[in-house]
Amino acid sequence: MKPEELEQTLVLIKPDALKNSLTGYVLSQLSEFHTGLSFAGAKIVHVNQLLAEEHYAEHRGKPFFPPLLEYIQGNVHYPDAPDKRRVIALVYRGPGAIQKIRDIAGPTNPHVAREKRPGCIRALGTIVPIKDAEGNVISERMDNLIHASANPTDAEREIKLWFRPVDIPSLMRAYPTEVCEEHFYFKGNQLYTTHEPESVCLLAPGDIVWKSDLEALHALQNGMPPCCSLQAVAAKYLINEDRE
Ligand code: CDP
Ligand code: MG
Hints:
By secondary structure, the chain is an alpha+beta fold. The protein has helices at 15-19, 23-29, 32-35, 49-55, 65-72, 97-105, 110-116, 152-162, 211-221, 230-238, and strands at residues 8-13, 38-45, 87-93, 126-131, 137-143, 146-148, 177-179, 184-187, 190-192, 200-203, 208-210.
């Protein structure tokens, strides 16, 4: 099979889509019948601060970054119902998966989406002004219902951020894996190879791990620059664990 036929992309059905009962609509728009794409992974995620920050790391420092983190964590749409704060994370696979889903999602800005691409998913979104302490509008939060990876590099980074290899059936994994031979623990943004009180065990001997994650952990152990941050490796093991 050609690489483009094995292409994968990450989709997030964001909290505003869940709040507005648009999950079925989004899934139907992305269905195999319409797109020729199929699922490789799916999970319900209560998004914590670490995962939100890593997912949107490229936007760190921008005025819309803090409101964006609140939005993706569900705090905006479910202020009084923490148990409903969630996103649905999906891996789709198939020919041209990344561009096909970006097209169905539409432009980032819902107003632009309505004008330029009526009928796309994000045309159903909304924009909320972001104000500073004096009440001046400094940016906009775009509640646009769906995330879709923008390119193959982002897709790989994002799928590996949200999914452990075992969350995806082995025949459907697009990226190389290895069997881990050590213990790795995480606590207070530090990596340990022996158990520390209140640490989380990320990996144990025999666990299947993304090869690039293992390379990042070995680089960190040896004081070398890792291919991705420790937080990006750890985030997927902390999903729905209610501890950071
Ligand atoms: O999601 P996409 O790749 O199309 O856009 P982005 O520029 O990477 O921005 C990521 C997300 O940040 C968007 O989908 C919006 O939800 C949000 N955003 C925002 O709230 N306000 C902005 N001015 C720009 C983006
Ligand atoms: Mg983007």
